[in-house]
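Minutes, methods subgroup
Present: GH (chair), OT, SY

1. OT presented the first of two proteins processed in the latest run. Sequence and structure tokens recorded below as shown on screen.
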Amino acid sequence: PLTYLAQEIKMLNTKLEEELSEIDFKIDIRDIQGIPSDMGRKVVRLDNLGRQEGDPLGIVGSRYKPILHKDAFGGALLAMQTGGLDFTDYQLDIKTYENGAMAKMELLLPAHKAKIGQHDLSVKFVARNSYNARWKFQSFFGWMNHVCFNTLVSGQKLAYSANRHTTHFDVKTSNMKIQNAVSAITDETKRFQHWWDKPVNDEQVAEMFKKTIVKGTITDAQANSGFSDINKKQLYILMGLYDQEVKQIHGMGDYGRKSAKGSLWCAYQSATAWSTHLGDVTSKTVDKKHIVQQKRQSKIRDMINSKSWKQLEEV
């Protein structure tokens, strides 16, 4: 059955069950008239929320195995509860997009906290799932910075998982890895403290961004014609955010930066501000913010694991 976690999820407290109700709707996988099933099938929603029953949420391949939003998110919550995480004063935010084809869950756990320099952090869990192949089932633990409300993406592989919807993937087994991930991000706070204390100059940060977040892909023909693989607009935005971080953490705040030198923590905060708040997203893409944010968070994970970042850590 599709809801193979249904009985276990009933163990969640009543409030959590109620909060999951928005994503608790039935789906089905059906053939598309005139197209062989091994070439493609459609995922349909079986309730009627302003649209006709049977309207497709997405087109999927023959090996597609549905992972229900409620199974994915409810199973993760249950794994956290049974694993001993403290849900005192938790904050849960669940959003759906494209008629429920895509869903995101963010859980903040204020009882699990840390202090890095002058910044207070709390553990945060983010999960995504889709029925239209736009997102794999993915989840990660990170932190939320209470000073600037940035979601701090973790570079730890244990703290991040992503799996396609196929017959070889078991969401229940994946969610049970959550307990190991909590240990991984707790250990990462020691790394955060090193970043807070690690001085860097503006030129080093700009070069690191050029080799990671703002580096694009161009063809040989474009390179030979003088095209740059650097997104200069993104670099300008990131360095502006970095300058603001230096002013607030090491400078004189609203009175200016003066001669303050930055730290690796400032570089990290500027990147997470860019991925969290999306202040530069244009009106043309504003309705796709959920996709933009996911792609940016992936770029930050890659940045933290890059050679350029590790060199700044070690210098």
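2. SY then presented the second protein from the same run.
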Amino acid sequence: MGRILVVALLWAVSGQAAFAEDRFSGSPFDFTFEELAPGVWAGVRPDGPRFPVMGNTLFVISEDGVVVYDGGGMPAMAEQVIAKIRSLTDQPVTHVVTSHWHGDHNFGVFRFGEEFDNVQFVAHEFTAEVMNSSRINYIDREMGFVEQNFEEFNKIVETGVDSQGNEHSEIDRAGYQDIIENRKQIDYEFLRAKVTPPNVTFSDKYVIESGSRKIALLFLGHANTEGDIVMWLPEEKIVATGDIVVLPSPYAFNVPPRAWSQTLRNLNALEYEILVPGHGDIQRDTAYVDLLIETSDSIAAQRDAMLAEGKTPEEVQEALDFSAFEERFTHGDEYIHNYYVGFFERPFRAAALKAVSGERMV
């Protein structure tokens, strides 16, 4: 999940109390499965912002095997996917595709290698680069994370004040209470988590022929990372995007706005009818992606205009205006608002300037 994302999660947790009773039920690692077309199943992690944030999954069953996309951010999630597959078919899993390197989509997929022989783990070359580098070592820092911070979280729940003297609302306190109640399972799953680098890589396109199905893996451009890939099912017109598309509001850590806009346009050019995002609810039109394009285009245009006027990067970052978009993402919902600020607006301000600095967007 990464330290920067964990910090954002703990900040964004301040929207959770209003939904604690009716949304925070069951394990934070549960999927809800839905068949989108014959033999094509999506698993959605309900309530995307819930800590710890975990990605969705998609799998495709053919007469010769099963191809899985983003098979589980934690082992418990991969095990749910495996159990669901086995309830539907006797065919083995042949391929597990990783959309990008962030662990909330893949720290559990080693379980497929333990359960099925000769599984091919497929990803973009950039994903392989990162997963074979020291950057992926953040997995070690997350082990025992909640237990290590238990006293601080409990202090907030009991007193409403953290160790720095900052006051927290009732909404904040309920969010931390949910984390505390699930701390043993959360820390246990992080303890089990493993990095699984791909053993098959590609740069632009890779086609998996599984029985009569042709499953296309496509690199459409830089978005959430330099190596995001989508799974495209042209016959069914279903696409799974990883974190190129995230709901209820986007992720924008290290996302270059102009490149992201173009990638999203390339995505729309597929003319999909169903979109399975990296997090959040399944989409059945382009409205949300269109909003992402409009927003990223606006931020890029504002940035470029202000830099051309001679404003400093710091001035530009502060002045970027998101007011035309906030309501369209949050719909006035406080829960989504905190998620929107912590995961999208705040990091996108920094990313928009980083994108023109020459620094690599990792």
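Chair's summary of item 2: The chain is about 40% helix and 15% strand.
Next meeting: continue with the remaining queue.
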